[in-house]
Amino acid sequence: MLRRHADESLAAAIPLHSRLDLFRTALASVHDGDTPTPTAVARRTAVSPRTLQRRLDEHATTWSDEAEHLRRERSCRGPGGPAY
């Protein structure tokens, strides 16, 4: 009975976001003017800027790549488009 309950609970669980997903959410929500900074995003994710850089390295990406990805997303959506 416990096994069945555990299986049903796991099947209904919402998957956790990866660190990269959490970073991208923070990047999109932090604005210093129109351009988010690594320090602001690190603060938002409660890590140091160096730890943020290491975590991006773990996902084979960089701050520049992610910032450019966000700029492209926003330009494709246009004004008044849905949030990132």
Describe the protein's architecture and organization.
This protein is 64% helix and 0% strand. It is built from 5 helices and no strands. It has helices at 2-12, 19-29, 38-44, 49-58, 63-77. The protein is elongated, with a radius of gyration of 17 Å. The N and C termini lie far apart (42 Å).
Please give a quick description of this structure.
The protein has 84 residues and is mainly α. The chain has helices at 2-12, 19-29, 38-44, 49-58, 63-77.
Keyword list:
single chain; 84 residues; mainly alpha
**Low-pLDDT sequence parts:** none
Number of helices: 5
- Describe the sheet with the most strands: none
Helix and strand string, N-terminal first?
Answer: HHHHH
Radius of gyration: 17 Å
Protein topology:
Elements: H1 2-12, H2 19-29, H3 38-44, H4 49-58, H5 63-77
